[in-house]
Structures are given as C-alpha cells and as structure tokens.
Amino acid sequence: MNMNIPCKCATRHVLITTFRIECQLDKDDFEPKVLEVLHSTCRRIGMLRSKAPGHESYDRLCFIQEYLDDSSEIDPSIALMMGARSSYSEADEVDPKMLLCCREFLSIRELSSCVVLEECRVMVKSEFYFICQSGQHTYLYKISTARGKLTCHETILEAEHSLETIRNGDVGIDDPPAWHFVNYGVKLYVIPSVPQYNHYYEVDVYRNSSLILESKRPSICFSAVCRVGQRIVALGDTLEAVYILDLQNVEWVFCKTSSTFLDLRKEIKISGFVDLGNDSMMISEVDACECFILDLKKKQWFVVEPPNGDIWQYCVGLLSGTCMFIEGFIYTCSDGEMVAYELIEKDGLYHWDAPVIMRLPWKKFSNRKFMAFCPICKDVIHDDIAFSIVEARPFGSSHTVATTIVQVKLQETTRGSKRPVGIAHADISTSSIEQNGWILSNYAFTL
User: Fold this and answer.
1) CA-to-CA separations, 190 to 164, 211, 226, 437, in angstroms, rounded
2) How high does pLDDT run on average in the chain?
3) What domains lie within the chain, and their CATH numbers?
C-alpha cells in the first residue's frame, strides 16, 4: 500500500499482485530463478481512520471499494514494471476497464525493489575492488563473489587499504578530480592532479601495501590519467599536454603530438576516457561534445565523428570517467543505465554508430557521478560479458552501497564486433560504509 503518492481521485490505492516463483534446487538451498506474474490489480481503498490523516499517519483498517476488474487477465503494466515474465497476450495494451485515475497512478509507479535475477552464464572473477574518496583520504574496498553471486549482502564493508590524499577542502561532486586512479597488473597507481604534490602512490593490491614515490613532473594540472596499453598517460588542459609515466626512472616524459584538423593549444574539459588498446586512447570533451583519439604510435590526434544528423550526444551525454572498450564497443555508465557505442575505423577516419542504451532494471543506480564499473569475466568473451557496478550514496555517515553483477548479451556484427543486445541482473546486493562526511565512488577494477 502506498501512503504517499497522490491520485486525482483523492483516495489511497492498494496494489495486489499474485505471482509464482520458479526455483532451482541448489546444494545449499532453493535458488529463485523466474518470477511469473499470475494476476495484478490496482484498487482504490476507503479508510476508517483513527485520527485525521497526516504525512506520518498509518491506517488501521481499510476495505476494498468495488470496481469492474476481469481477474482472468493480467495487467501488463504491472508485469512490465516488475520485470517479470507474463503470458498476457496483449502486453502493449492497457486494460480498458481500469479506472483512469488508477491507470495514471500505475504509469508513475516504480517498483524498484522488484528485480528478476538471471543465472550467470559466464565465469566471473572471485573479487573486484572499488575506490571511495572521503575528505583527505582514499579508501580501497574489496567485494567477493562466489559462483556468480555477491557475498556482501547486508554487510558493513571495511576498507582493505587507506591512503592520505590531500586536497583543498572536502570531496566535491562537481569539482575536477584531485586524484587519479590507474590499475596496472596487480598495482594501483594513485596520482595527484596538482603539481604541488610531486609524488604518487604505488599500491600492491595483493600484498596490501603501498609506496610513496617522488617523481619529476611538469608544473601543470593533470585533467585525466589513463592506462594506454602498457603505458600510463596523463593529459593537461590542452591536447598538446601529453605526458607518459616512466616507471623505471619515476618521471613524467613529455610526448610531442600533432594533428591535421585540431588546434592542440585549445583548452579542453575532459569528461571521460577509454583505453582502446594498440597504444591508443579516446577522450570526450564536455563543452563541444566531441571525442578525440590519440594514437601513440603515430603520435597524432584524430577526431571521432558522430552519426550524421544525430544530436544524441547532447541528450545521452558522452563518456563518463573511466570507460571500457570491449569487442569493438565502448561501454560507459549514464544515469540509471549503461550505454555502448561502436567505434568504427575506415580509411584512417574514425566515427561511431548510434548508442545502444541499456537501462538497469534495479533503480538503485541513478547518478553516473557516483557509479563505478568494470568487466569481471574470467574467461574469453563469447556470447555474454559480465560487469560489476557499484554506487555509494555520497551523503550521511552510514552510506548505502548498491552493488550488482549484470550480464550483457552480445551478438556478432558483420564487421566482426560484438553488439550488446540485452542486459540483465545476475545478482544484486546492498551493503554499507560507515564514514563521516561525503564519499565519492567513481573507480572500480579487477586484477
């Protein structure tokens, strides 16, 4: 029963659903597999109140008012909202017998807690990590998996490692990053943005230890730091400011680049980046909504052309934070969804096709600024790929952490790339982090 959402008929509503859960017998217990809605209805209810209704009032007794309802049919809107399988033959139609006010009520109702889980079809790694920044520190957290399921349900997460990452003021959601994170093998590199701090951290994740390394670096701020193949590359606030970290000599080496069509001295604001492999990376620029590729072998910048006549980049947004390039498609997180773009090269020119938008059925993921994700497949990718996605609630002292394993169904294209054609949750979990002040979770990785 919903006590808060209003309706034009000025009465309460009750949502009644009968469903069946198909289970699979596991060695430990019954594992739910499929939820099938048998019948659902939304009804107005009258109240016998013990006191005048208020925001915090609860009604002791109610009765169902009469209205025409065909119990042999399943309301398709309920089945779709629950993400469930339904045998209703006209799933795109709304029951014409339903009251108008109830139909409008259902159109805005979101059952975020109802999610159908699919059996994980790929082997996933036994653990993955994510970063939380809070105040003047950075914390490393680990989440374990077992047979494609998360093992952190309703737990308080404890940091595996912490670092002092000094910044001016507290963590700002809309501020440029003060520290950058790059994983390389079993190491995690934590690199400051501002030149006043001429050191960086090298964290051995397996050994749970860290070193502070003094480095020679340029007197500029790093706007993005990314792993590009076997290298770690930092960019300044222009395209000509490209530096490669020499791990042996612990110094940042300037890389001179060129471009036929771009003014490399123009100031840029980077929203996201991705390692394309083969010594190439791509960045997205905020103000112009453009994307550029850096080829380190040729030491050249190239423009990535969007689909002709489309303005999708203004509506969906471009790359956000650290993104992933898998089987010809670039994956990024958006608000409540994953988005994939196919990158196409022809005759030395780059463009990409229209985006594939995959909405996450679990409504816990709402803001891409707080979302971190990484692929967690253990074997070679064939028809499916698994991702872990984490979002930590930034406010308060007890921060809810929503975690999911999703699997994306792939379909091979005529170009040999693998296009995502569907997404489903293999498992979901809510846990918490006890930390005073704001926290920011925006980086995840596996070893």
Assistant:
1) 10, 10, 11, 21
2) 81
3) 12-108 (no CATH), 127-445 (2.120.10)
C-beta neighbour count of 103 within 10 angstroms: 15
91-138 pLDDT, tens per residue? 334 455 555 555 554 554 444 445 778 889 999 999 999 999 998 999
3-state secondary structure of 78: helix
Spatial contact of 422 and 408, defined as CB atoms under 8 Å apart: yes
pLDDT tens column, 256-297: 999 998 999 999 999 999 999 989 999 999 887 889 999 999
Q: Which amino acid is at 281?
A: M
Q: List 172's β-bridge partners, or say none.
A: none
Look at residue 432 and give its three-state secondary structure: strand
Quick: pLDDT tens for 370-400.
Answer: 899 999 998 889 999 999 999 998 888 889 9
83 and 362 in contact (C-beta within 8 Å)? no
Write the CB contacts of 26 (distance below 8 Å, at least 6 apart in sequence): none
Beta-strand ranges (E) seen in 120-205 are 127-134, 137-146, 149-150, 161-164, 179-184, 187-192, 199-204
Q: What predicted TM-score, i.e. pTM, was given to this entire model?
A: 0.76
Residue 26 DSSP label = -
In the structure encoding, which two tokens stand for residue 158, read together?
């404890």
